Amino acid sequence: MTTAGPEQATQPQPSGEVAVLIARRVDPGYETQFEQWAQGVLDAAAAFPGHLGYGLFRPAGPGEPWYLVHRFQDAEAYTRWHHSVERAAWFARADGHHQEVARRQLTGLEGWFPPNGSARVPARWKMTLTAVLGIFPLSLLTGTLLQPVLSPLPLLVRTALVACLFSTLMTYAVMPVLTRTLRHWLSA
To answer: How far, in Å, CA of 143 to CA of 184, rounded?
Structure first.
């Protein structure tokens, strides 16, 4: 197994999630073996405390890299996995017909921006503008539709409910649509 150059990382937020994006190039004819190996690595990581989910993305075309994505509760959870005996055992089983070509540790806003055929993350100003495009309508809707319903609740409860709603909608609904819609602009 060969690895890419030094891992690129952004400054983690104090208690923020960490997503790790790994690109691996697979020799032609070894795709099935790689997929089985990668699934084993991902399943092993999923058993670790603080692991939030994963994905395996097939290449866009022949010769293009495969992407593995891990999400962890925080940097400590990722570090436990990265230095684990289980991870080392899986990498010892690698057959040499695939190699890492890029690795990126994403924290904060970058986790909302999935790979678009490259391991490059959009410029921070583009990520910020995209997030604002998502947050603005949610804020407007919350203020007009939910605030009257939530106003009898204590401030802390009301704020917690809105924060949970925003996080869920931004992660699972708004940002996937925005990043898909703006993918060409984000990658330019």
So the answer is: 32
Query: Residue 30's CB: how many other CB atoms inside 10 A?
Result: 14
Q: Are 36 and 10 in contact (CB under 8 A)?
A: no
Using DSSP bridges, classify how beta strands 66-72 and 51-57 pair: parallel, antiparallel or unpaired: antiparallel
Structure tokens belonging to residue 188: 């330019």
Is 24 within 8 Å of 34 (Cβ atoms)?
yes
Instruction: Give the span between the Cα atoms of 173 and 185, in whole angstroms.
Output: 20
Q: How many Å apart are CA 22 and CA 137, to the nearest integer?
A: 33
173, two tokens: 């609904």
pLDDT in tens, 148-162: 888 898 888 888 888
Structure tokens at 22: 């790994």
Q: Is 88 exposed, middle or buried (0-12, 13-18, 19+ CB in 10 A)?
A: exposed
d(CA 31, CA 37): 10
Residue-level pLDDT at 112: 59
47 within 8 A of 85, measured Cβ to Cβ: no
- Whole-model pTM: value is 0.53
Residue 57 structure tokens:
């993305």
How large a percentage of the chain has pLDDT more than 70? 83
